[in-house]
Amino acid sequence: MPAVCIKLSKVKKSMSKNHVFKTVVDQLSIELNNRCTEYGFKKKVTLKLSNLRQSVEALIGPVLVAENKHPGRGYASIHLNKNWYSNSTRYKKNPSYRIFVERAYRGLLHLGYLSQAKAGVSCGSRGLYLTRYRATPNLLKLFDSKSLTELPVVFAGQSEVNETIRVQHTYQKQIPTNQVDQYGQPKTRTVKYTELIEYEDTDQTNQMRHNLQLINNRIMNKWIDLELSQEEYTKLVTLMAKRNKDHLGENPDDFRPLMLSKLKLYRVFNDSDFQTGGRFYGGWWQEIPSEYRDRIVIDGKRTVQLDYSGLHPHILYREKGLELDGDPYDIGLTPNRNTEDTTGFRKMIKQCFNAMLNADKWMQRAPRGSQLGRYGVTWKQIVNAIKAKHPAIADQFFSGAGLGLQRIDSDLAEEIMVTLIQRCSEIVVLPVHDSFIVHHGYETELREAMEDAYLQKYGAMPKLKASYEMRVESTGVPDLGSWNHQSANDDSLVDLLELSESIPNERRLNLFRSRPYSASTAVI
Q1: pLDDT of 244 higher than 80
Q2: What percentage of residues in the chain have a pLDDT greater than 70?
Q3: In this structure, is residue 189 part of a structural domain?
Q4: Which range marks the domain in which residue 63 is found?
Q5: Exposure of 135 by Cβ count < 10 A (0-12 exposed, 13-18 middle, 19+ buried)?
Q6: 25, 264, 363, 429: which one has the fewest Cβ atoms less than 10 Å from its Cβ?
Q7: What percent of the chain has pLDDT over 90?
Q8: What is the value of pTM for the model shown?
Q9: Which alpha helices (H) appear in 221-358, and where do they start and end?
Q10: Which residues, in sequence order, are CB contacts of 124 under 8 Å at separation 6+?
């Protein structure tokens, strides 16, 4: 027992009040100020030195978290258009262009701590992609691997979420490429971009914002992590990079590196009347491949995921006063290839079903990534089979009805999360649209809240599906020793404590538990 007590005291002592990140920010700020004449400034800043420091923190923090000990793979984005800094909206704070861009960003480039990875792209007056930058070896060598592992905790919840109730419109535009067709005309490609829309606050938006504050405050009081071995972590990073790479050619800013510091949720609506959309976004757990959600841990405790089975089809039937029997995605169509993959085939049918609901006009082809060829079926066969299975709601397909359904399921999600927060001070709920992740000990409470929320609205209950295949227990506990070459005696608490200090998710949890500090959130 004395040995264990000594070890625990060392764990607490190792979590210093001032993380090395703070020291590095101070060091770089002083260096920038002292060498400002090298990159175009005649004198140092004095009164605005704190602004310079906050700018340095805001610039290097995200790129270091994204880098995550993989030099050259992680990057962050920055606005370089001066006008962007002069327009203040509800969606963004307004840093000083001269401090943030000219002194901090260009200064860090000049001193060799940052490098520009790719210039931004504009089409006319509209910016398409932001400028992206990376951390250089000069910056990375200021941190040891332990400090880099702990950075997600230092930045927990500090990602830029200035407005939690958002209205967003998505546009498409054809832009020319460097290629030409057989007639010598420039080829074009479709680029999607989003624009945040201003709106007037109402009692409704203020209540939604208040509820989100309750939800985010609860999430911020828990540490959400992934219990992965080094090999599993490498596979995850590789998979996410590959998945994002498929889209980077068309939408480079869609790249989403794994950033455990992204904890704050926000809601995105598709119209200023708040009738469509409204789902919750922003949490890193929503961005990882679904097969890795079984490894999510909350304060070191394993989790379970529950979801409504066929929620949108059930809602559509109930709205028409009808009851849906059976699996809505069992449409009487059988695959001609890979017939044994019934789970994958059903998942593909569900993807096509939802795409048909979300589309506001006829779709000429299946949604991206649906892999119809894998199962030897055609898009026409799927559309006809879905309509034949659901004649009562056939008018809802290709009508854009899905966005209205998202408003309904997001309101259900809000009610479920707020109800459980008010019911128990320890419960935190992680939403993934119409499914929810909680500590496995609160499965019953989550089930009851989901049933109550739906019953209050529709008076009938769709089948709840417990994703038991998404429990950590079914996939095994990671081999903690895979993170280093140290062997440990499983019967020795001292050995396990020593080993846990080398496991990234354990180190982050210990740091979170002993955190006496928080990253600066002051307006630049």
Answers
A1: no
A2: 80
A3: no
A4: 10-143
A5: buried
A6: 363
A7: 47
A8: 0.82
A9: 230-248, 311-319, 342-358
A10: none
